[in-house]
Write a structure and sequence with these properties.
By secondary structure, this protein is mostly beta strands. It has one domain: Beta Barrel (OB fold (Dihydrolipoamide Acetyltransferase, E2P)), CATH 2.40.50.140. 11% of the residues lie in helices and 48% in strands. The longest helix has 6 residues. It is globular.
């Protein structure tokens, strides 16, 4: 799938297949390019990419949200929070960490 130094490959996957294998839960296409980001690197914010919560369930001590955005579905891991706040159908704004967002080669 991809060759290189372990840290380099882990932090900079070159393809969607490599990204998924390395734990990037979110891989999508937009504007003619492919992107990847890990679920823990997406925050909820007052503004950002609009999304609708599809499901919310416990994930360790935190919460795992599955959301539908305008271009793709996204998985978001939150540190904590009540599931009732994120009932299916709730509208949220997703803010990917720009330093962790990867454009795939």
């Amino acid at each position: 799938i991809q060759q290189g130094l372990t840290r380099e490959v882990f932090n900079n996957p070159g393809s969607a297949a490599a990204a998924q294998l390395l734990g990037f839960e979110n891989v999508w296409e937009a504007e003619g390019a492919s992107y990847a980001i890990r679920a823990a690197d997406i925050a909820l914010a007052e503004t950002g990419m609009p999304a609708t919560v599809l499901s919310a369930r416990g994930h360790g001590a935190g919460l795992r949200l599955e959301c539908a955005g305008p271009a793709a579905r996204f998985v978001v891991h939150l540190e904590a929070g009540g599931r009732e706040r994120f009932a299916p159908g709730a509208e949220v704004f997703l803010q990917p960490d720009p330093l962790k967002l990867k454009r795939l080669g």
